[in-house]
Amino acid sequence: MAALFCENCSGQYHYPQAHQPFEISCMLLLIMLGKVSLDFFMLQVKQKNVKVSFMGYFCVSLALLDLILLINIAVIFYFEDFALWGVRFTKYHICLFTQIISLTYGILHYPVCLVAGLDYYMTIAQTSQSPRQGQRLFYIFVVIFIWISVFFCILKVPAIYEELEIRNHFSPYQCPLYVSVQSYAVSFAMLLLIGMALMVSRKEVITMILSVRVISFASQPVLMFSYASNNNGTCFKWQLLTRLLVCFLGTWAPFVLLQFIILFLGARIPAYMEMNVPWLYFINSFLIAVAYWCRCHDVELTEEMWSTDPFVSWKFCFMPFNNENTEPAEKPGTVIVIC
């Protein structure tokens, strides 16, 4: 990370010392309150009967850490100036704690995506929904190890600590926060792969979308895609890619559009806001889709197989749904997919 030095800073960066810390503290408190509410809302609305995974445990740990940060900010904001165990806390520490969290979150994207991707690649074909106790303990250990390693890197690496001191010295009333480069790189890579997949299977995707119908199944409205698949020399993997795209975009299309807008506008979002539970579940569904596509021939068509993703149902990406209440296909080779 590069440090920014300035000798003749313009007057627009200087604010009255009496009001600016209060405004920053209040803003950070409100932002963290909204983020924590969103984190726990996503954890509450997700499907409960899903297989345990590294990403699931990490999302819970992130929500808990955000809650701890919110409680610290609220306590300091309320008491303003107090001592605890011989340490004096002021509103300056609200900014300091948020800066440390921003630096920590900013370097987590790569290791989290790597570990989650490897986890799904190795376990996506497992049919057992009840993992061994050792697997749960291993996930907990990996999550704790990642957090400790990143915090150690932030607090012990001299270059990072010096940059934090420089930022606070030149902008004591601004509370400059770290903007992660890793999140932009992950977003760009995901959008690039999604765009390439859409280009490769654009005809199949358009055909599926044009054939969509809303029907009632098990007293629930569902989408039925009835389309004639092209089996003339078409590889199963490329047909599967179309279905994975439709299922993924059917759930996360607004989030994909949001990522595109952020990258297009070059919006600089602080890392403590970027790393959140919805973002992680978005990455989670993407990694699951990639794992399904890479190991499609190892996937067994069992009911326990489809309880992997808390938000996306991948079941009908692998097999057509045949139901006696649905209308018969108009011609041979028609595939009926219900999502």
Question: What report would you give on this structure?
Answer:
- The chain has 339 residues and is mainly alpha-helical.
- It has helices at 20-45, 54-79, 92-106, 109-123, 133-156, 158-170, 181-200, 202-210, 236-265, 271-274, 277-294; strands spanning 82-84, 87-89, 212-217, 220-228, 334-338.
- The strands form 2 sheets. It has a 3-stranded antiparallel beta sheet. A two-stranded antiparallel ribbon has the order 1-2.
- The model is unreliable at 1-19 and 321-339 (pLDDT under 50).
Summarize the structure.
The protein has 339 residues and is mainly alpha-helical. It contains eleven helices and five strands, in the order ααββααααααββαααβ.
Mean pLDDT: 75
Strand order of the biggest β-sheet = 3-4-5
If helices are DSSP runs of H or I spanning 4 or more residues, what is the number of helices?
Answer: 11
Q: What fraction of residues sit in β-strands?
A: 5-15%
Given as residue ranges, the uncertain stretches (5+ residues, pLDDT < 50) are 1-19, 321-339
| Shape, per Cα inertia axes | globular
Keywords: Membrane, Transmembrane, Transmembrane helix
Transmembrane segments: 22-42, 54-79, 91-116, 137-161, 181-200, 240-265, 277-293
Subcellular location: Membrane
Organism: Cairina moschata (Muscovy duck)
